[in-house]
Input
Amino acid sequence: MNTRLGWLAVIGAAVLAGVVLVVCVALFFGASVVTRSSSEVAPSDQYASNGQLIYFTGRNQRGERIPFEGGPMWLSNWLYMRGGGCATCHGADGRGTVMMGTEVPSDIRYHHLIEEGHEEGEEHPPYTDELIKEAITMGLNPAGEPLDLTMPRWHMSNQDVEDVLEFLKTLDGEH
Ligand code: HEC
Output
C-alpha cells in the first residue's frame, strides 16, 4: 500500500513538473507569436463600440494605440507586446481585480464612481462625467489630488475618452 502511494506521488510530481515546463516554454515562445498576430490586425469588429475596444485593447477604432504615461514599469512592456487597456488592471467587468503592489485598481463601474464616499478611507466628492474624464487623462481624483502612479495617464482624444466613459456606464448591469 505504502509503496503504491509512493509511486503515485512520484508520478504526480513528474506530471506536475511536465506541465510547469510546458507552460514555461509556451510563455516564452507565446509572447513573440502574440506580438506578431496582435500587430497585424486591430480586432475592431469583435467589439461593439470604440469605448469597449479601448477598454479591452488600448487601441481605438482608427487602429491607434492610446499613448499613456505612468503606470508600473512592466506595463509599458506588457502593453507593447500583448496589447491591453483598462481591463488589464480593472478587469473585464470593471470591478478591479488585479492587485498591483499596494494599490488595488479601483472599481470603475460608473454607478460606483458617482456614489458618495465610494472608496473607504478616501475623502473626496463623488465623480461626475467630467471628473471621470480627468481621472483617465490626467490621473486626478475629484479632490484634484493625483491618483496613484499605478494608474496610467491616458493621452486620448476627447471623443475617445467620451466613448470609454459611455462604456463604463454599460458595466453597471451587475451589482
Ligand atoms: C496598470 C494598471 C491600470 C490600468 C491599465 C488602468 N488603470 Fe485605472 N487605476 C489603476 C489603479 C491602481 C487605480 C487606483 C489609483 C488610486 O487609488 O490612487 C486606478 C484608478 C482609476 C480611476 C479612478 C477611480 C477612483 O476610484 O478614484 C479611474 C476612473 C480609472 N482608473 C479608469 C481607467 C481607465 C478608463 C483605464 C483605461 C483607459 C484605466 N483606468 C487603466 C490602475 C490601472
Notes: Residues 28-41 have pLDDT under 50 and may be disordered. Strands lie at 68-69, 153-154.
